[in-house]
Amino acid sequence: QVQLVQSGAEVKKPGASVKVSCKASGYTFTGYYMHWVRQAPGQGLEWMGRINPNSGGTNYAQKFQGRVTMTRDTSISTAYMELSRLRSDDTAVYYCARRFANRTSFWFDPWGQGTLVTVSS
Amino acid sequence: DIQLTQSPSFLSASVGDRVTITCRASQGISSYLAWYQQKPGKAPKLLIYAASTLQSGVPSRFSGSGSGTEFTLTISSLQPEDFATYYCQQLNSYPYDFGGGTKVEIK
Lengths: 121, 107
Known about the structure:
The structure holds 2 protein chains of 2 kinds.
Chain A: E1 3-6, E2 10-12, E3 18-25, E4 34-39, E5 46-51, E6 58-60, E7 68-73, E8 78-83, E9 92-101, E10 106-111, E11 115-119
Parallel strand pairs in A: 2-11
Antiparallel strand pairs in A: 1-3, 3-8, 4-5, 4-9, 5-6, 7-8, 9-10, 9-11
Chain B: E1 4-7, E2 10-13, E3 19-25, E4 33-38, E5 45-49, E6 53-54, E7 62-67, E8 70-75, E9 85-90, E10 102-106
Parallel strand pairs in B: 2-10
Antiparallel strand pairs in B: 1-3, 3-8, 4-5, 4-9, 5-6, 7-8, 9-10
């Protein structure tokens, strides 16, 4: 079945970087954009950006420009999201999600299980 | 950027109630809208895509409607497992932002 499996929880110090992985299975990895969404504790969902696994092309939310880098390794069907210069307010659960489409719309399905990143000194 | 205003942000209802959640976009997004359900500690789950198409496996008590700037998610008869937070998302143009969420709690 179609599945996204993310890497485990991370604890980082302010100023450090974190790299979260998202391994896809059950479908052609290069055929669908991969998106990243985060959720701070008790807060809503925040779109961070996307990568085209086929070309490597990216779009990032303005808020994260300059701090986020999304990459992929097609040989192992895995997408990565690296966030640098971490601050305490980057503490959140980070999700990857596949964008699916038909002729009239897009949607996210499935989602990864989430990766908790805690930023604390 | 397209802003999504979701209302209400909190809703208290009883089992069997009909519940409606509204999502308004700051500009037209055609049918590029999805609805998700999220339970504590879990990833969001797709309920509705293309504004009104029920995702496979989702109970038929869930329905979506709307086009352009105004959208609704309706639960025809609330069940105990439906108590959760619901989010709309626009996928018409980047950034693919979400509404602020509606938390549905037991009255």
